[in-house]
Specification:
It is built from 1 helix and 10 strands. The chain is of the alpha+beta class. The chain has one domain.
C-alpha cells in the first residue's frame, strides 16, 4: 500500500492484494518473486530480502532492515528509515494502538505452529517522494520440517538401542 494521495491515511483504492509464494522465512535471504507477488499500476512487483535476512520475534518485532521492494523491473530500496503512522490505523487491518519504528515490523503470533500471524510494517519512501508505505500480512506459521536424514538417524539409533537391549537380556 502506498499513500499516493498524501493524506496520511490508507484509502481503499491504495490497497493492493498480495499473493503469497514461499512466504517470509526468518533467517533466510530471498530473491524477487520468491516471497510474494502483487501489481501496482498494473505493473508486477514483489518483496524480498537480497542480503540481510529478516530476524527477530514477537516481543521485539522483526528486523526488516533488509526488506526490499522490486517493481517495474528494478529494486526500489530507497526507504527513508523513518516509520510512518497512518492516521486511520483503527480501520486499517487492526493496527490501532501500534507505534511503528523504522526497520521494525510489528509481528503478532501465539507461538504455536499452525496458528495464524499478523504482521504490519511501515516506512517512508524516498523513491516516491517520501510517501507512506505500509505492508499488512496475515497467514499461518508453519513448523520447520526436520530433514529426512535426522529422522533416519534417530530411527537407526533407536533400532541399535533395541538390538543392544535384546543382546544384554539373552
Amino acid at each position: 500500500m502506498l499513500d499516493v494521495n498524501y493524506n496520511n491515511s490508507v484509502d481503499n483504492y491504495e490497497k493492493v492484494a498480495i499473493s503469497g509464494l514461499s512466504g517470509i522465512r526468518i533467517g533466510y535471504t530471498s530473491a524477487p518473486f520468491e516471497v510474494d507477488t502483487w501489481r501496482f499500476s498494473n505493473i508486477a512487483g514483489s518483496h524480498y530480502t537480497p542480503v540481510i535476512p529478516i530476524t527477530g520475534d514477537t516481543e521485539v518485532g522483526l528486523n526488516f532492515s533488509g526488506w526490499r521492494v522490486f517493481w517495474n523491473d528494478a529494486e526500489v530500496q530507497d526507504f527513508q528509515n523513518e516509520a510512518w503512522q497512518p492516521t486511520n490505523c483503527d480501520i486499517v487491518s487492526g493496527c490501532s494502538g501500534m507505534v511503528f519504528q523504522s526497520e521494525v515490523a510489528n509481528f503478532q503470533w501465539s507461538g504455536v505452529y499452525g496458528d495464524t500471524y499478523q504482521l504490519w510494517y511501515t516506512e517512508k519512501t524516498g523513491t516516491w517522494d517520501t510517501i507512506g508505505y505500509l505492508v499488512y500480512l496475515t497467514g499461518t506459521v508453519e513448523a520447520v520440517p526436520v530433514p529426512a536424514s535426522v529422522w533416519l538417524f534417530i530411527s537407526g539409533l533407536a533400532g541399535l538401542i533395541g538390538i543392544a537391549k535384546r543382546r544384554i537380556s539373552t
